[in-house]
Every structure is written in C-alpha cells, then in structure tokens.
Amino acid sequence: MASKDTYNNIGVTLAVSPAVLSATNTSAAIDLAGFEGATVVVTSGAIVGAGNFTPKLQESDASGSGFTDVAAKDLLGAFPAALAADTAYKVGYLGSKRYVRTVITLNSGTSVAASAVILKSHARSKPVA
After folding, report:
1. Within a domain: residue 37?
2. With 20 labelled, which of 2, 50, 72, 113 sits at a CA distance of 20 to 30 A?
3. Who's near 18: CB < 8 A, 6+ residues apart?
4. Is 50 exceeded by the pLDDT of residue 1?
5. Mean pLDDT over residues 98-113, rounded?
6. Domain count within the chain
7. How far apart are the first and last CA of the chain?
8. What is the pLDDT of residue 43?
C-alpha cells in the first residue's frame, strides 16, 4: 500500500487563489527547498469579454528578485498560448532553481476565472507535513 502513497510524498502550495482575474497576476515566490521536482496545475473557469490570458512559470535562486521565464527544455509539457474555458493544465518543472512563481498574463479582453497550484514532489524527507 505504501507504494501508492502520494499524500506523504508531496507538498501542495496555492500560487493563485481561485478568482476572477482582470489583470496580469504574478504569484508570490514558491520555495522548492526539500524537493527535487514540481508540477504546476493551472485551472480556468468562465472567460468573459473574450479574455485572453497566457500562463507561464518563472524561476530564480532568490525569493524576491532575478526571476526569468523557465526554458522549454526545463518543462515537461507546455502551457497553452491562451487559457480555454473550464480546463485544467499541468506542466512539470525540471529546473534546478530554488524558487518558482506563476504568471498569468492578460493579453486582451476582460477576465478569466483561474487558479494555480504548485505540487512539490520527490521530497528529500518523508513524510511531508
């Protein structure tokens, strides 16, 4: 039974609370200390006024500065060019930086209901609290 246990082997951090976004949203820095990997899950709901939003992941060695877009080679999967209504996306992070953050950029239109969660994985110390 232990081999199927993910509960004690992952950390979950809310990057973007479920909300209606009408402007670009940049999450706080998410600390990956103690974990070897991460997956970002972005969900979308209703889109109003032809809202066009693009998600991406950024990385840095410092929590407050130096963030740059994660290179495609350091991602498993890819983010869509624009969020579609009522959809969930997952993209894995293979990079080596300590901090990541999500950015959901407003390109045009009015709004989108969205959220983002970072699933921290491959914990160095288990069980994860």
Report:
1. yes
2. 72
3. 43, 45, 113, 114, 115
4. no
5. 97
6. 1
7. 19
8. 98
Q: Is residue 129 part of a domain?
A: no
Q: Which two tokens stand for residue 31?
A: 């600390």
Mean residue pLDDT across the chain: 95
Q: Rounded distance, CA 30 to CA 22, Å?
A: 23
Find tokens 């600390």 and name the residue.
31
Is the pLDDT confidence value at 62 over 80? yes
Q: What are phi and psi of 72, to 5 degrees?
A: -55, -35
Please give the model's pTM, rounded to 2 decimal places. Answer: 0.94
pLDDT at 2: 54
Where residue 75 sits, what CATH number does that domain have? 2.60.120.1110
Domain that holds residue 29: 2-123
Q: How far is CA 118 from CA 1, 39, 43, 89, 92, in A?
A: 25, 6, 12, 12, 10
Partnered with residue 13 across adjacent β-strands are: 118
Q: Mean per-residue pLDDT for 84-110?
A: 97
Is 76 among the domain residues? yes
For residue 26, what are its two tokens? 């940049």
Torsion of Cα atoms, 69 then 41 then 5 then 124, to 10°: 20
Kindly state whether residue 73 falls inside one of the protein's structural domains.
yes
